[in-house]
# Entry
Amino acid sequence: MKISQETWTTKGAERLDDADLGNADLVLGFGAPQLLCDQDVWRRLRERWGTATILACSTAGEISGTQVLDDSLALTAIRFDATKIRCAEVLIEGLTSEDAGRKLAEQLRAPDLSHVFVLSDGLKVNGSELVAGMTSTLPSHVSLTGGLSGDGARFERTYVCLNQFDGLPRVAAIGFYGERVKVSFASMGGWDPFGPERRVTRSKDNVLYQLDGQPALDLYEQYLGEHAAALPASGLLFPLSVRATLDQPGVVRTILAIDRDARSLTFAGDVPTGAYARLMRANFERLVQGAEGAARTCHEGAPGRTPELAILISCVGRKLVLKQRVEEEVEGVRQVLGQEVPLTGFYSYGEISPFTPTARCELHNQTMTITTLSEA
# Structure
């Protein structure tokens, strides 16, 4: 596997290494919405990488090496030695998120499929249902990772692009085929719970109406105090931990929207009726430790192999909490994986991965999720 990385801004392009893969098989792009909307950018991408498959999405911040940037396009070109890839996409208009996941997975199914990396619209897709549709259709030995595209802290419009920009809401994925490709992954948070754990007494999919029989928005406003006026954006600082039963670990859910008339909250993934929910708040040191822990789990999941590429997908909420120190979580990953491993990625509206290589795939919020790739 050969890797070449560049960062494009309105001021020009900067290479992160000495490689020049004009004949790449795959180009991953994570960028500011205004750059992905620019047809001149796509013309330049085609001139730069010819017939390569280009998979890109909008972000809430770009990870380029150990830098966290805004208003840029982080590009990673990959040429494989023995791995075959196949791309697929589904326009989500008129489909449930679960159906979109099934249709996407069906396009990629094959006996030698090893891993799927998926990027989804971040606002019009229920990430939990998308994952359920994909995992129910993919063979059990095929792993799945990826994330939901972002739009800064604006929550207005997100984009996923496969080889072009047309502005239509979609889910797109890359399938990796063959025995030579080796993938490891992990997801970890670092948020502290506060307040009592409550029962979800009324919800529908990813819309939460009541906790312990009380309007969900009322309770959130009570606990957030002065931060309540800035909802839904301030909800990124106070996510919800949800567990289906008391003996299960919780998954973290981030608010995407509120309905003041219905007194409800819309989350990036499902909040099932009957589940247990508890508010979370940031602990700076534990957020950085969570990123390092995800990197260690990835490393342990690939014994004896040095990753040739690490894709980092972290949550926009973590970026808002860490602020000017946001690069510390990326630097923590670098220290664990090693100085020579190329890093790319983005800040998202949701992360798709198992917690560990042996767990089932889920949608997460407020985590650092890492996918490492290499060829044996």
